[in-house]
Amino acid sequence: METKKSRELQLERNSNLYFAIGLAAILALIYLALEWKTYYPSYDEFAQLEITDELIEEVPITIQKLPPPPPPKIQTPPVIEIVPDEEDIVETVIESNEPDQDTEIADVSDIEVIDDDIPDEVPWVSIEDVPVFPGCENADDKRVCFQEMVQKHVRKNFRYPKLAQEMELHGRVNVIFTIQKDGSIGNVRMRGPHQLLEREAERIISKLPQMTPGKQRGTPVKVPFAIPITFKLQ
């Protein structure tokens, strides 16, 4: 004979209802916790300025006497002088400086000649007669021929230093040298990423041949020239 259980005493009867009520209550508590806001009291409520009576000082009233104004300047009336009548003025005759048949001709040796103000050094872009590189004497454009021959000289004498290759040194060396009045190369200046590359650039420029110097108004002058030498690892 099976035992009969009453449905009112079964715990599983309203389990879904209890679960829904508990879940709703938990969600409501979470929502209230997230939306809860608190406010801190303002610092203005605690910060107050108090001035004691001892620090308050009454400034005494003083009366300052101003200096009296300076006396007004009395302008004296101008003195009128009576000038006597001028005497008869003798007019001077201004002689002409134009040469005529009676003018004496000066000797050529007595005439002073002013020397032309020619600078000692003239930039490459403004030199009248550029320096002539050997082999460019008959070129139509000696300026372009000079630049091409210098570049050809650099490519011919270029040697990448082994130590610089091992150190993986590379970059551009800017070289400025001056063609002197006698056609020689001097005043070589360099600026590059390392001394090894600068020394190699100096060695290349030192092998430049003797040139015909540049001239300004027919006078030999110094002419600076700049060229970059690039060291690039393969």
Automatic annotation (TrEMBL):
Alphabetized InterPro entries for the sequence: TonB, TonB-dependent_transducer, TonB/TolA_C, TonB_C
Domain of life: Bacteria
Principal location listed in the UniProt entry: membrane
GO biological process, one term: transmembrane transport
Record PROSITE patterns: TONB_CTD
Keyword hit for ATP-binding: no
GO cellular component: outer membrane-bounded periplasmic space; plasma membrane protein complex
Compartmental location: Cell inner membrane
Transmembrane annotation, as ranges: 17-34
GO MF: energy transducer activity
Membrane topology category: Single-pass membrane protein
This protein's record includes keyword Transport: yes
Keyword entries, A-Z: Cell inner membrane, Cell membrane, Membrane, Protein transport, Transmembrane, Transmembrane helix, Transport
Ranges for domain TonB C-terminal: 145-234
NCBIfam families from the UniProt entry: tonB_Cterm
Family affiliation: Belongs to the TonB family.
Name of the protein: Protein TonB
Organism per entry: Flagellimonas meridianipacifica
